[in-house]
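Something for you to look into today, if you have time. Could you write out one complete protein record for me, on any chain you like? Leave the record below and I will have a look.
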Amino acid sequence: MRRPPTIMVGCVVLLAAIVGFIGTTYWIQSRTLRAVDMPVSLVRGTINADLDLNIHGSYSIDIGLSQGGNLICSNGVGLETRRISSLGGLPVYRYQWIEDESRARGRDTVTGSFLGGFEGKRGHYNLRIEVLSDTGCLDAGNPRLYVIASNDDFFRWNRYYQNAFWISFLSGSIGLGVLIVGIRESLRRRRAEGLDFFEPPRSLHGYPALHRVKVAPWIPFFSQIGLLYSQILLLLVISGILVFHYAWGYDHRSYGLFVLTYFPESSLFKHVPCEQACVVRVESSNKWYLNSARIEPDNLSDALRAQIGARASCTVFFDAEPDVPYAEAIRAIDRIEQTPGRVVLLTPETKRTGIP
C-alpha cells in the first residue's frame, strides 16, 4: 500500500526542526562572548594572551580573584598595570575618572581590576599586559584574566537562542501534526482495504444478500488538520496562560531597586527639573563621593535632600568601580532611593558622553 505523502512531509519538517535547533544552539554556544578566561600570575612581569573573536561586540578586560575580593595585598600594595592603549589596532577606552587619576599620578598606569574596554571585531588578537606592581601575594587567590562581552551582547545572543527555540518548536509541532494526520490516513486506508477484502457476496443461494452498510465518510483531510491544530493551539494557549500566571501573575509583586541607565537621546533626560545633576561615586577603598566631595555613607541621603530640595524626579548619577562589592553598590543605591532623586547608572559608554 502506498503511504500518504503527509507522512514523508511530516517526517522531513520534524527532522529539519530538530536538526536546525541543534545546529543553531551549537553555533550560538560557539560565539566568543567569553573570549578569555585563564589563570594568570600577578607577579611583576608580562601577561600574554591570544584571543580569537568571531562576533562584533563590546568587550571589557578584567582581572579578578576566583573567590572575589580586592586586588590589594596585606601590605597595602595594589595591582598596577601599564595602560593598554590599543589591541590589534582597536582603541582601548577607560573610565574618565581612571584617566584623571592617571594624570594626577603622572604615570600612564591603571590601578585595580578593570584594565579597559574595546569594540571587538572578528579576528585574532594578542593581548599583552605589563604588571608593574609586586603583587605576587595575590596568586594565592587564583587570579584570572577575563575578556568578556557586555551584558547587552549576552542579552542579544540569548534572544537569538530564544527565537531559534520558538521557531524550531513551532516547526516541529507542524511537522508532528502533519505526521499524525498522515498516520491516521494510512490506518484509515488499511481499515478500508480490509473491509473490502472481506466484503460479503452479492447473493447467497439464489437470494439477494443484504448489501454492506457503507462506512460513514471520514472527516475530510483538511478538516482533520484543522481539528488537530485547534487542539495544539488550545494546548499552547493553556501553557502560555500558566507561564504568564506563574512568571508575571496578578499577585506577583516586584522586589528590588528601580534604576535607569543614561541614554542622552531619550526624552526622559531632555527635560530635567534640576539645573545640575548630582553624581555619587563609590570607590573600591570604600570611599564615597558626592560631586567629587568626600562624604560619609550615613550622610549621603541628607546631603542629597538638601541639594534636591522640594523638586521631584531630579537625576542622580551613580558610578562605582568595577571591584566594588555588589552589596556596597546596592547600599549606595538604596541611600539614593531614600531621596526624591532618580538613580541613573553610568556605564563605560555613557561616561564618554557629556552629562548635563
